[in-house]
Every structure is written in structure tokens, then in C-alpha cells.
Amino acid sequence: MARSHHPGSSGSSAGDVPNAQRLRALGGVIDERAGVTTRRARRRQRRAGRRHSRARPWWIALGVVALVIVVIAGAGAGYLYYLNSKIHRVEVHNLTTGLTTGADAGTQNILMIGSTSRCALKVQNAAYGLCSAGVNGVNSDVIMILHLNPATRAVSILSIPRDLFLPNARSGPYPYGGYKIDAALYQGQSQLIKVIREDFGIGIQHSVELNFDTFANVVNALGGINMYFPMPVFDAYSGLNIPRAGCVHLDGYHALQVVRARHLQYRPTSVTTTDHAYWPYELQSDLGRINRDHEFLRVLASTVSKQGLGNPVTDLRLVNSVAGQLEFDNAFTTSDMVNLLLTFHSAKINSAPQLTIPVSVGPNTSYIFAGYPKGEIEFPALVPDLHAIDQFLQISPDTNTLTGQPLPHPSAVTVSVVNGSGVANAAATTLSALEALGFRGAGTGNTPVLSSQLETLVEYASPATLGAAEVVAHSMTGAVTLMQAPTTNGAQVTVVTGTQFAVNRPAAAGGSTSTTTATHATTTPTVVSSATSAAAAASAGFQPPSASNPTLAPWDPRACPPGMPVRSVP
Length: 570
Hints:
With 570 residues, this protein is of the alpha/beta class. Helix content is 29%, strand content 20%.
């Protein structure tokens, strides 16, 4: 729901940053002298060009970019010219132009990506795995979106779990694009942006990539950070090893071990041995890591605020450590950065909502889709997913997430249904349930069954009909996802039935809404309760949907309590 490339550009207030108007004007001069292209020219370039695909990681981008610009804003023109000379810009496609009118005018979404690419590192490090040894995959280890609202100066953050299975994660004819979302980055940042827009209805205005080295350098430039570990933890994959509880000083290398840990073991008081073989696993994989990463971001923001940001030596060290290793999309001009961060320089990062797309974790086996193994996956959980996205974008549920306009009434939406589950009469039963909600039926059909457990697809042919698809999606529950694809029978929207979904029943007489749903599982569809639908999903090996804003686990690291002694990593 990002709306404009120039938040705050129309007003004169920029908080307590001195010379704000001069800095804005200077940003435009620097762009002109540096040959930064106009938006019209950039749009032509996006249509004609190809993106440089070097991979890099992520979310400290808000703290990092804000930090750098605040330093520069205080120091003046010299730093601003210096920053512009060091920034790397790359060609990125599929960015969405934001709206300039309406309640959402000026809001922006910035995608922040963390890559697993070892081959992109300037200096190889055996601790990360060596490109020369075959560790050459390109996946998005972290996918995080930053939402900025200049009218309220509010900030929110949304993480997308990397193991979420989507039918179009990669380009190509369906079903050959079916992968976990982290695989989209293999085809470049532009593909990941496209998937986020098509499957979640979230337009991206700008993107940032960083790598392992950038992360470590920023932490080191700050002098390290302190985190409290409530109990000993260990991760054989990331190298994290904290043998005793307490407050620990982390340099960049060891901080990276914390934020990369997704196979975490911990030692509760009931376990006395130091042998890691007997320590329990947290069994949350990427979901646990996302939660720790959000907490790390809060601690990092607090560390930045304590630096003071006035010592030229410290400031220049931070700029040197960060600016040269950031990669921005080529549409992100110096003027954009100045306007954006003069507006948000005082945002309280550690109090910003930090949300995660809820998912249902699948059974601990390799998922087989269209005859190919896809690894351990997670399925979407439509109702909490939509709620999290609306909360992240700060909009109501009846709003088109791309345009900010009201969603159409069901009577204005035509729907066809294709049976993808192989369950007898699934298409006809589903269409009947949708028609009972006011949608106009356009026909049914069948398609090959691609797996024993399938997401239900709500397909729409173009961004112009995304709103119609979102109305249909809001009428369903379970493992359901949006997907841009050709529809059937001339309908605006086509539903391809999976194995775990439900269609809401019409409101009961008198206006009350029934909690029962028309559900379709691996047996003949019948009208049952939503609790029965959840039980069917559980019997298939999928856990209940995860929380969008979970609390820290008892073993997770967090901010150090005041006055606690700090020790170094052994």
C-alpha cells in the first residue's frame, strides 16, 4: 500500500533536523549531477532492461539507512555527497508506483532481503560455507517489508517465513513455478517482488539487499551489542554456542550466529548435562528465528540511539561500514532517501509493530508437488494472513491492498471453480457455496491432482481484478492463497480447490453470522463446523496457524536487564 516516492516532500516540517529544506534541495542537485534518471526514464529502463542479480541480506536496513541519513542530515552537504558516491544501485523490475491521493497517499513499502548467497561475498568465510566448496545456492534467508506512513510517521514491519510454499514462487507455467518463497530470489530480486505483489497484494516501492559481511560490519561499527540469554543455547548450523545464561557482548560475527539460528537447542534447568545431544530443540525453525530477529532489531535500535550520533569519528565509521555495502533499487534516489528519512528519523523502531505472516507448519517430511520433492514446507492460513496484512498496511478488511479503494460487492464478481483435489463434486459444491454468498457463478471444471495435500488457489488474471480476488479470499478460510493466473469460463476469479479450505456460510436470519462453513477435505464435501476443518488439517500433519505477533520463547535472547554484568562470548 505504499503510495508515493516522496513522503514528507510537500511539507516543511522535518522534526528537529536542521536545514531540512536545504538538504532536500541538495538531494535533488546530487541526483542531477550524478545522472540519476527521472521516474519516467526509470520506468522505460525497467521495461527494457534486466536486473543485476547479485544477492545480499536485510532488516537492519531501516536502522542502518535511518542511522546513516540522520548522521548526514546533522553534518550537512559534505556527508551527503560522500554517501551518494558510495551507494550501489541495481536495476530492479516490478516495483509499484505509489498513490499520491487518498488516505494512503505517500505511504511506502520497502522490501528488505537477506540472501544465503556465499558466492556474493567479497571475502569467503569457511564459517558461512564456501562458494568454492559448492555452497552456491541463492535463497532469501530473510524476507521483511517495512511500511512507512508519512502522515502519521508510523512504522510497521512484516516478515514472510522463507518456507512458505507458493504455487508461483518462480516464473514459468503452473505448476512448475511451485516452490518455497525463498527460492524466488534464485531468479532475482524482481521475481520476489512480483510474488509478494501477486500472492499477498502488497506493492513494493523500493528494495534493499545486504549480505553477511554488511550485517557484521554494522554491528562492529557500533562497537557490538549486548543481549541477555535466559538459558544456554546452541545451534550446530549457525555456530551459535552460549554455554551459560547471562548478558553477553556480541561482535558482528557472533551476532550473525544469533540471527541465523534456525536449528536452536536450549538447556532448561531440568537438563544438567553440557552434551548438546541431550538438549531439546525448539522445533520452530524459521518462525523461531524470525521472532529472535525482531527482538534483535529492537536491541540494535536501542544501541544506535545510545551512540549519540554527534561524534564525527563515530559517524564517519558508521557511514563507511554501511553505505558502500548497501544495494538499493535504481529508482531509490538521493532525494528519496533525504525526504524519507527526514520524515522518519525520529521513528521509534523498538516500539513499531513487528508482524509475521501466520503459517501452518507441515509434517516433518519432504513435500511432494507435481511429482517433485520441495522439502519441509509451510502452508498459508488465509484468515490470520489477511488480518496480519491489513494490520501491517493499517487498512480495513474491505480495502483493496494495492489501490486503497473499497473492495467490490460479491454481486459484482464472477467466479468459476476448478476441482484440483480430485474429491467428487468439489467444484460444484464450492461454487454453490460461493453463490450463496452473492457471487455470480460462471462454471466449473477439473484439473490434475498435484499432491495429496494442496493449497486452494484464488486466481485472477491481472492487477485490475485483484480486488475481486480479495473479496473471494475474504469469503474463505484454511490453506488458501492468491495467485495471478489465467481464469476459466470468462470469470474474473477462478478458485482451484485444494484439500484444506472452507467457504463461509451466509449470514443467519436477523444478520448474525454463522460460524459453520462449507468445507472440503479429502473426503466428500459436507457442511461441517470450522473446528472440524481444523481437525482435518491437523490429521494431515499440519499444525495450527502460527501467531502473527508471538512473544519470545523462554530461551530466546533479549535486551539485557539494567545493571547486569556483561561478559564476552567464550
